[in-house]
Specification:
The complex is a heterodimer.
Chain A (H helix, E strand, L loop, with lengths): L31 E6 L7 H8 L7 E5 L10 E4 L2 H7 L6 E6 L2 E3 L3 H12 L3 E8 L6 E3 L3 E2 L5 E2 L16 E2 L7 E5 H6 L9 H14 L4 E11 L10 H14 L2 H24 L5 H14 L1 H14 L4 H5 L7 H18 L9 H6 L1 H16 L1 H5 L14 H8 L18 H10 L4 H26 L6 H11 L1 H8 L3 H16 L8 H21 L6 H12 L6 H7 L7 H6 L1 H4 L11 H17 L2 H18 L4 H23 L7 H17 L20 H5 L6 E6 L10 E2 L4 E6 L15 H15 L5 H6 L3 E7 H11 L5 E4 L5 E6 L6 E3 L6 E3 L2 E3 L6 E4 L7 E2 L3 E3 L2 E5 L4 E4 L5 H23 L3
Parallel strand pairs in A: 1-2, 1-4, 2-3, 6-12, 13-16
Antiparallel strand pairs in A: 4-11, 5-12, 6-7, 6-11, 8-9, 10-12, 13-15, 14-15, 16-18, 17-18, 19-22, 20-21, 21-26, 22-25, 23-26, 24-25
Chain B lengths: L1 H17 L19 E4 L8 E7 L4 E9 L2 E10 L5 E4 L11 E4 L6 E7 L3 E5 L8 E6 L6 E8 L5 E9 L2 E2 L8 E3 L3 E6 H4 L6 E9 L3 E8 L2 E6 L4 E8 L5 E9 L5 E8 L4 E10 L3 E6 L8 E19 L2 E6 L5 E7 L7 E7 L5 E6 L5 E7 L4 E6 L4 E17 L4 E5 L6
Antiparallel strand pairs in B: 1-6, 2-5, 2-7, 3-4, 3-6, 7-8, 9-15, 10-14, 10-16, 11-12, 11-13, 11-15, 16-17, 18-23, 19-22, 19-23, 20-21, 20-23, 23-24, 25-30, 26-29, 26-30, 27-28, 27-30, 30-31
């Protein structure tokens, strides 16, 4: 991203006033000495010839730093510029400093003299054109930042269309061709011989300005520059010279803050460049500092010299400087280009700055991003709510262990597979150093942003892309189907809905141009499908089905082979889906209410969009949105999640279709856009709570006392009259719903309850007994299950009050707000040695002191526990001789986990490799 | 194709309204209320009087007796029951705490427990489980020289708060000390009504639970004897046998705990004939009526109270012979347990046949020995002598009402029988 330079320094707080002309003497009467600095390895004869052809003949031509042998006729040789200046007498008015690889046009010197005389400037530079071209600009004067970094404002290869042809004050002019008053040059001590060419120009320009002179560029003075002396934009010598120039020029008060900032900027610049794969900046900065320290005494000496002629303060320098750091701006622009390129296939976002802000997609993205921020604002303030299936993360290692076939501790425990959403949750949590709450927030925020951009990209693939497609992404993530998921706290399903467009994008589009690109597309499809499967296991087959649907609808291009390969990623959800088979078409369902207004608006948007725009895209959107909702009413929650996620994407596509009509005037066009906008607007209701539409926190706070009183691994029994008041899934009890959770708190891996087993039956029986009032000691019976706390929501408390008012071993806990809490006075941990010593949780197992006794585990028995498992009723015993007990998995989840890792890493590698140009 | 696609969209949109929404998740059916597996004896005293808890009913098994006081279990014991299902717990053997209510956990909810108090008179009262319904206490007074105490016991883990709705001859009592009485867990709170509301000739109290649960009992002490009674719950039909006790004056106390007046009638089952609706009256809201039994009965007999709304009804005997209060029987039945009957010496059981046909009743001692088999004519009351001991059980071939009474030397004790499956 670059920015065109304005004719006046763009960021200066005060533009210089118009250049005023003086009464000038005739140009031919001016005495000029041309000092041509020889560039190593370049024959200066072309420059000499060009000087000789000038309209205004220099009174003398000096070759500086050249070979003394073979001296051209009429040319005086000098060792350096200082020698030239020393030799000049008072009859000389100006010195024209010219590089030996430059070829001025015949009128170049005249133009310099005329403009310098006309406006009483002290230093004038030429417009530089790239040698060998007719009209490619190299420099028309430059600005700098406060650190001396040049900023030309020109694009690489920019053609001279006379767009900069106005004489103006600039921060500095290049030393390739500059005309300077002889007296001033002498007074300033000449050109700093220690500096590289560009830095020398900067240094001289700044000193001229500080001495009260004007520095101007004269575009009518054109000089072709062969650039053999270097382009002046790199190299540690140039950088060192620029720093020296600034140290010489600034007053001490400016240096006090400038130098530390320069150091900091250098560090940031180096780090940013490292991200871009450039490592040389670090040594360059080191050398810059080292060189300046080595030449500090001469720098100080030069400062003293300059102090004697100083006429103006640093403010005069600041007037011609851009704000901020040019280097950091460039690095930031490059980095954002790289990032934004991923979001915008047609590179709209990554175009030049002027185009960027005029692009509708930029504004669409920004508005959508703001809406996402508004819709998720609570996560920035207090984190995501802990409600239903929106649950905190377990520690990463334990979660991954559970996914890789470890013990599933949900409920009373089970060998069943945990929900695979624990994998991305754990990975992100590990990245943020184990901060689960941060990981949740980051995943959610960036997931939603990815959802918005993904939908826009998918819309583009289906021919309905536009700036408004980003807003359609908002409709997707906050619209009716997403609201259904959110109302039930289905966090992972929302994430699945957000990321699904990327998986669909991966299988839609033209056939890859090469085998390498095909492999890259396959890798991308594999990664995206795997990721969405992690969040919603049943979504794994959706990309393939979508590719088929796209094929059937026609015209659009789909990548069936790519989709087929990507479907391998669905494998990561297979263990979970296998264990959930009995519930795939049955079980507790996500409420799918009919919102008449939303359906009507959706239908109108689709219908009008199909009439005024793409009927194919509309048909796909209708199938996804309406079909998803309709079928979701007849299946279990796992399939529902997938269908509602598909439906959410369908709603987004419907909005995009309606808002991306062809530019045909007519009532349908406007009605379609209106309906699309209405679809977006009604989805904004989901922004109200700032929680992505999810209910308010129910279990995140207020139960800390439970952890404080913990002795070993314990459980909490949660009871509610409404299952929506319980975290995750629940079981049906007599007149209420219930579930057990870890006393440390409910976590994402506990959200899904495993298949009903003997322990659940036993606990159900105990609850029947308690609810009937048949037992005086419910605590004693609950202790068998490791239940230390009983937390009952208020409405369920009324139901259970007759029984809980007439018992003797559950002490009411008076400090829980909004709930009725009982502490079991008969505490018995989940893992307990025969002598009552509690064992603690450790990962997916338990640890305790080594003992010859057996340890009772209040988990649903499984012989894979050891050492020396002995079942007893629904629970069992292990030997305590090792001091730990663990579950030895013999299921295929381990292989699946390894395969998942391979697919993710391999797919990502393929995707990156395939997208690179060979 | 565009038209076809539009039609498909219309069909898909319509399908949303055709396919029904998923049903709400519903919980399992509520658990039917099980018979209480415990009973609470609030009137236990260990320091001043000898208290024996007689357990009767069920078969062999065991019961746990927990003495609670001051928020904790002060003592507990497990009592093994023989085949006959009879046992006695002498509380003073467990604890010396003056007021030591006992929670008894059952293995069989058909067991019944009676508190028998001996010392400065005799008294008996049934133990009872907690109930959310108001517990009514009738027939008390706070005239000079008497001590009328309500004992609110809470054996449970949670705190309880109760209000006392008291009525006397001055009307509804409004003393602030009657409201918001907190009974901490595993504790007992005595409320001395004779101090709080002194000088009342007649007093009835309803213990209304605001939160938690309490089991209440009342003791009325007047010189040489005292009466003990457990709370009753209101009913619209009551049977109250009135034996002829020399030196004791029998009265019928009725209390209307509701907020509206309740009409009632009195059916009189005398020795020879029945007078239905012998007396009709209306009890104002939260008021009481006390009727002298002799105004309706010349000898022993039964008074039946039939009301249009639930009332409380007790029989009270007081005089030189001592004093005793026992609750009316709301529901006749064929099986009766009389734990503790005979604990104070030889007693009499009074069996009233509320049915239309003749009833044959067999009385059995706790050790299984038959005491007597009697025929009870319809509408008649038969008295049977009970030997001294720990009680008796009654099995009849039709529905009868049974109460028992011990007449000592200037002391009286009485209680209604308990049905094992009420």
């Amino acid at each position: 991203m670059t920015d065109r330079m304005n004719l006046t320094p763009s960021d200066s707080t005060e533009a210089p006033g118009p250049l005023e002309a003086n009464d000038s003497r005739p140009t031919d009467a001016v005495s000029v000495v041309a000092a041509i600095t020889v560039v190593s390895g370049v024959d200066p004869s072309a420059t000499l010839e060009a000087v000789a052809r000038q309209d205004v003949k220099p009174t003398s031509i000096r070759l500086v730093g050249g070979d003394t042998e073979g001296e051209p006729r009429g040319v005086v040789l000098n060792e350096d510029l200082a020698a030239v200046v020393a030799e000049l007498d008072s009859t000389v008015d100006y010195v024209w400093i010219l590089h030996g690889d430059a070829e001025p046009r015949p009128d170049a010197l005249r133009a310099l003299i005329e403009e310098t005389e006309r406006i009483d400037a002290s230093l004038a530079g030429s417009k530089l054109l790239v040698g060998g071209t007719q009209d490619t600009l190299e420099s028309v004067g430059s600005a700098t930042d406060v650190f001396g970094e040049p900023y030309s404002g020109l694009d690489e290869g920019e053609v001279d269309l006379e767009q900069y042809d106005v004489v103006r004050d600039v921060a500095f002019v290049s030393s390739v061709s500059m005309l300077v008053r002889r007296d001033l040059l002498r007074g300033l001590g000449g050109v700093d011989s220690l500096l590289a060419p560009t830095a020398a120009g900067l240094d001289l320009s700044q000193r001229v300005r500080i001495a009260g002179g004007r520095v101007i560029v004269v575009p009518s003075s054109e000089v072709f520059h062969q650039r053999r002396c270097g382009r002046g934009d790199g190299g540690w010598r140039e950088q060192s010279g620029r720093l020296r120039a600034m140290i010489k020029a600034y007053r001490p008060v400016t240096l006090v803050w400038m130098l530390p900032f320069y150091l900091l900027t250098g560090i940031l610049d180096s780090l940013g460049s490292l991200l871009l794969g450039r490592w040389r900046l670090i040594p360059r900065y080191v050398l810059t500092w080292a060189w300046n320290i080595a030449h500090l005494s001469s720098t100080i000496s030069s400062r003293r010299t300059l102090a004697r002629v100083r006429q103006v303060g640093d403010e005069e320098l600041f007037r011609y400087q851009v704000r901020g750091s040019v280097r950091l701006r460039q690095v930031g622009a490059e980095l954002s280009d790289r990032v934004l390129t991923a979001f915008d296939e047609d590179s709209t976002v990554t175009r030049r700055a002027s185009e960027l802000w005029s692009a509708p997609s930029t504004w669409g993205f920004l508005v959508a991003a703001i809406l996402v921020v508004v819709g998720l604002r609570s996560i920035f303030l207090g984190g995501l709510p802990v409600v239903r299936h929106s649950l905190p993360f377990e520690d990463p290692f334990t979660s991954l262990s559970r996914f890789a076939g470890g013990w599933n501790a949900s409920g009373l425990g089970s060998p069943d597979a945990v929900h695979p959403s624990v994998v991305p949750a754990s990975l992100v949590e590990a990245i943020v150093f184990g901060s689960g709450e941060t990981a949740r927030s980051i995943l959610t925020f960036f997931g939603f942003l990815a959802g918005v951009t993904g939908l826009a990209r998918l819309a583009a693939r289906l021919g309905v892309g536009s700036g408004a497609a980003y807003l359609a992404g908002v409709a997707s993530l906050f619209g009716m189907p997403a609201a259904m998921l959110a109302a039930d706290g289905r966090w992972s399903a929302l994430m699945g809905a957000a990321l699904l467009p990327w998986a669909l994008v991966a299988v839609t589009g033209p056939r890859p141009a090469s085998r390498r690109r095909l492999l890259g597309a396959m890798g991308l499809a594999l990664v995206t499908t795997t990721v969405v499967t992690f969040f919603v296991p049943a979504l794994g087959v959706v990309p393939l089905l979508f590719a088929l649907a796209v094929k059937v609808v026609g015209r659009f291009q789909s990548r069936l082979l790519v989709a087929l390969v990507g479907t391998a990623g669905a494998g990561v959800g297979l263990p979970y889906l296998h264990d959930r088979l009995p519930l795939l078409l049955d079980g507790a369902q996500i409420p799918v209410p009919t919102d008449l207004l939303a359906v009507v608006v959706l239908a109108a948007a689709l219908g009008l969009g199909m009439v005024a725009g793409s009927w194919r895209a509309g048909l796909l959107a209708a199938g996804m949105s309406f079909g998803g909702i309709t079928i979701a009413r007849a299946v279990g929650s796992d399939i529902q999640e997938a269908l509602l996620a598909v439906s959410a994407v369908g709603v987004g596509l419907a909005a995009a279709t309606a808002m991306r009509t062809w530019d045909r005037p007519g009532a349908f066009t406007w009605l379609s856009r209106l309906a699309g906008a209405a679809l977006v607007v009604i989805s904004l209701a989901g922004l109200a709570g700032g929680r992505a539409g999810m209910p308010a926190d129910q279990w995140g706070e207020g139960l800390d006392f439970i952890r404080m009183a913990e002795t070993g691994a314990e459980r909490v029994l949660l009871i509610a009259a409404d299952p929506a008041r319980l975290p995750g899934e629940s079981r049906q009890g007599p007149g209420f719903f219930y579930r057990t959770v870890d006393a440390r708190g409910v976590t994402l891996d506990q959200g899904i309850l495993p298949e009903f087993d003997d322990g659940d039956a036993a606990l159900g029986g105990v609850l029947e007994e308690i609810a009937s009032g048949a037992t005086l000691r419910p605590g004693e019976k609950l202790s068998e299950f490791g239940i230390h706390w009983l937390v009952v929501t208020d409405e369920a408390a009324e139901l259970l009050r007759p029984a809980l008012d007439t018992q003797v071993d559950l002490n009411p806990f008076p400090f829980a707000e909004g709930r009725t809490v009982y502490e079991n006075t008969v505490v018995r941990p989940v893992a307990e040695a025969e002598d009552g010593t509690p064992w603690e949780r450790d990962g997916t197992g338990f640890v305790g002191p080594e003992t010859s006794q057996n340890v009772r585990l209040a988990i649903q028995g499984n012989p894979a526990w050891g050492p020396l498992w002995q079942g007893e009723g629904w629970a069992g015993w292990v030997s305590g001789q090792l001091g730990y007990t663990t579950y030895r998995n013999r299921r295929p989840e381990v292989a699946i986990a390894i395969a998942a890792a391979v697919m993710l890493l391999g797919g990502a590698g393929l995707a990156v490799w395939g997208r690179r140009m060979p | 194709m565009r038209v076809v696609a539009l039609a498909v969209v219309a069909i898909l949109a319509a399908a949303i309204f055709v396919v029904p929404e998923p049903g709400q998740q519903v919980p399992g059916p509520p658990a039917p209320a099980a018979p209480a597996g415990y009973t609470v004896c609030p009137l236990v005293e260990s320091a001043r009087r000898t208290t024996v808890l007689d357990v009767l009913g069920g078969g062999a098994g065991e019961v746990d007796a927990n003495v609670f006081a001051g928020g904790a279990i002060a003592a507990d014991t497990t009592v093994q029951l023989p085949e006959e299902g009879s046992a006695a717990v002498e509380v003073s053997e467990l604890t010396g705490i003056a007021l030591a209510p006992v929670l008894i956990g059952f293995d069989d909810p058909s067991r019944r427990v009676q508190t028998s108090l001996t010392g400065a008179g005799i008294g008996s009262a049934s133990c009872a489980p907690a109930s959310p319904e108001p517990q009514l206490f009738l027939g008390g007074d706070s005239v000079e020289g008497t001590v009328y105490t309500l004992l609110l016991s809470n054996p449970f883990a949670g705190s309880a708060t109760v209000d006392l709705l008291a009525a006397s001859e001055v009307g509804v009592e409004t003393d602030p000390g009657l409201e918001g009485i907190v009974v901490p867990p595993r504790s007992i709170v005595p409320v001395e009504l004779s101090s709080l509301l002194p000088g009342r000739q007649l007093m009835s109290v309803a213990v209304v639970t605001r939160s938690g649960r309490v089991v209440a009992g009342a003791k009325h002490e007047s010189g040489s004897d005292f009466s003990a009674v457990s709370g009753i719950q209101a009913s619209s039909d009551w049977y109250l046998p009135f034996p002829q006790i020399e030196g004791a004056y029998g009265t019928l106390a009725l209390y209307n705990p509701s907020g509206s007046e309740v009409p009632f009638q009195l059916d009189v089952y005398g020795p020879d004939e029945v007078f239905e609706a012998a007396h009709e009256d209306v009890i104002p809201a939260r008021s009481q009526v006390v009727l002298a039994a002799r105004d309706f009965l010349e000898g022993p007999g039964v008074l039946r109270v039939v009301a249009t709304a639930p009332l409380g009804a007790v029989a009270r005997f007081a005089g030189e012979a001592g004093e005793a209060v026992f609750p009316g029987v709301a529901t006749p039945g064929p099986s009766w347990l009389l734990p503790g009957a005979g604990r104070h010496g030889a007693s009499q059981a009074y069996m009233f046949n509320a049915g239309v046909g003749e009833a044959t009743a067999r009385l059995v001692a706790p050790d299984g020995q038959e005491i007597a088999t009697e025929t009870v004519p319809s509408g008649a009351m038969v008295a049977v002598d009970l030997p001294a001991g720990s009680g008796a059980s009654v099995e009849a071939d039709s529905e009868i009402v049974v109460v028992w009474m011990t007449v000592g030397d200037g002391v009286l004790a009485a209680d209604a029988g308990r049905q094992p499956h009420e």
